[in-house]
Design brief:
This protein has about 375 residues and is α+β, with helices and mostly antiparallel strands. It folds into 3 domains: about 90 residues, Orthogonal Bundle (Butyryl-Coa Dehydrogenase, subunit A, domain 1); about 100 residues, Beta Barrel (Butyryl-CoA Dehydrogenase, subunit A, domain 2); about 150 residues, Butyryl-CoA Dehydrogenase, subunit A, domain 3, CATH 1.20.140.10. Helix content is about 50%, strand content about 15%. It is built from 11 helices and 9 strands. The strands form 2 sheets. Strands 1, 2, 3, 4, 5, 6 and 7 form a 7-stranded mixed sheet that branches. Strands 8-9 form a two-stranded antiparallel sheet. Helix 1 packs parallel to helix 4, helix 5 packs antiparallel against helix 7 and helix 7 runs parallel beside helix 9. The protein is globular and about 80 Å long. Keywords: FAD, Flavoprotein, Oxidoreductase. InterPro entries: Acyl-CoA_Oxase/DH_mid-dom_sf, AcylCo_DH-like_C, AcylCo_DH/oxidase_C, AcylCoA_DH/ox_N, AcylCoA_DH/ox_N_sf, AcylCoA_DH/oxidase_NM_dom_sf. It holds the Pfam family Acyl-CoA_dh_N. Its cofactor is FAD.
């Protein structure tokens, strides 16, 4: 067994006891949406928050392959937690900003679990596009103040630290805002996927600290978003694998007409189709997590988002169908995975958006064979 497999087993074993179905159902109905004890345990005892953070800033110094494993297992368990918002978005945006003083100031509290953070990219959870940034920043002597609204922000109502992409006279910039800042309004929202919390934020002259150079945040945020796509695709992969495992297990146990339903050809074919989708998604995530060049990662991240979005949607629906009548009830967990599938399908760009992005990326000169345009 490789070190990565051992790490996966450790994370899976932990989540089996930390995020069983009853805990998920309890937490998804709370406004906060997560268990603080589990949150701190993941940070301090397992070191998950800093698994891909350089050792210089107190992390484990691993990389995206290890972090992808964490997100895959969290997706399988439907863990109710602000981990994605804090680690895949806010912490990564800090690291990609290149502002060492800001990383020194804000990263320790994110790594030890004493703070929750999130990142506001635009007014929704759409794909990254500098032209879609809706928040504006105005200079106020030595400080900045933010104005505007963000309609959909992951864990925005509980975040202690909010990083915000905003427009200044010099272009797209990144700012840090305290969750208790004057002029900041936060409204939790009811959404399709109740296991992941979303809020509406309003900025009315909110004091903010500039992260990095004024007008120079776009490139770093583009990289952050590509890495977040890989993390999200990993979540989708883990959820799809769990749906497949559950469906196959049920097909082996459910007796119909004196036989296990898994012995019927129609069920066999459906399970085989589900397996093909999951394995295709796994290959896409594996490649995206291994990519180190920014250009290669951009292509691989969009491929993974397309493959994993389609895999989770189809596999979760087929799992529900294989379970028959019980699969359509509120008491069964199948619908929670379908809800996660529909919500994540649209987060940071739909499959159609990423197919169009892929067409643009692969037609650019850097992706053409040598000597051809």
């Amino acid at each position: 067994m490789s070190e990565l497999d051992s790490f996966r087993t450790a994370v899976r074993d932990y989540l089996e006891q930390a995020s069983p179905s009853p805990a998920v159902r309890t937490l998804m109905d709370t406004e906060q949406g997560y268990d603080e004890a589990v949150w701190r345990q993941m940070a301090n005892e397992l070191g998950l928050h800093g698994i891909a953070t350089p050792e210089h800033w107190g992390g484990a110094g691993a990389g995206m392959p290890e972090l992808a494993v964490v997100f895959e297992e969290m997706g399988a368990a439907l863990l109710c937690s602000p981990f994605f918002a804090t680690v895949a978005l806010a912490l990564q945006a800090l690291l990609d900003s290149g502002d060492e003083s800001a990383i020194d100031e804000f990263a320790p509290a994110l790594l030890d679990g004493s703070q929750v953070a999130t990142l506001v990219l635009n007014s929704s959870l759409a794909a990254w596009d500098p032209s879609a940034v809706t928040i504006t920043a105005q200079r106020d002597d030595a400080d900045y103040r933010l104005f505007g609204d963000a309609g959909l922000v992951l864990d925005g109502h509980t975040a202690d630290l909010i990083l915000v992409a905003a427009n200044t006279a010099n272009g797209t910039s990144l700012f840090a805002v305290s969750g208790s800042a004057a002029g900041l309004t936060r409204e939790p929202l009811s959404t399709l996927d109740r296991t992941r919390k979303v809020a509406r934020l309003g900025f009315d002259g909110v004091a903010a600290r500039l992260i990095g150079a004024d007008g120079q945040a776009a490139a770093g945020l583009a990289r952050t978003c590509d890495l977040a796509l890989v993390a999200l695709a990993s979540e989708q992969l883990g959820a799809a694998q769990r749906c497949l495992d559950t469906a196959v297990g049920y097909a082996k146990e459910r007796i119909q007409f004196g036989r296990a339903i898994g012995s019927f050809q129609a069920i066999k074919h459906r399970c085989a189709d589900m397996l093909v989708l999951v394995e295709g998604a796994r290959s896409a995530v594996f490649h995206a997590a291994q990519a180190t060049d920014d250009g290669e990662r951009a292509v691989a991240a969009s491929v993974a988002k397309v493959a994993c979005s389609e895999a989770l949607l189809h596999v979760s629906l087929d799992s529900m169908r294989i379970h028959g009548g019980i699969g359509f009830t509120w008491e069964h967990d199948a619908h929670l995975y379908v809800r996660r599938a529909k919500a994540t399908e649209l987060m940071f760009g739909s499959p159609d958006h990423h197919l169009a992005r892929l067409a643009d990326l692969v037609s650019s000169p850097r992706h053409q064979p040598e000597g051809k345009l």
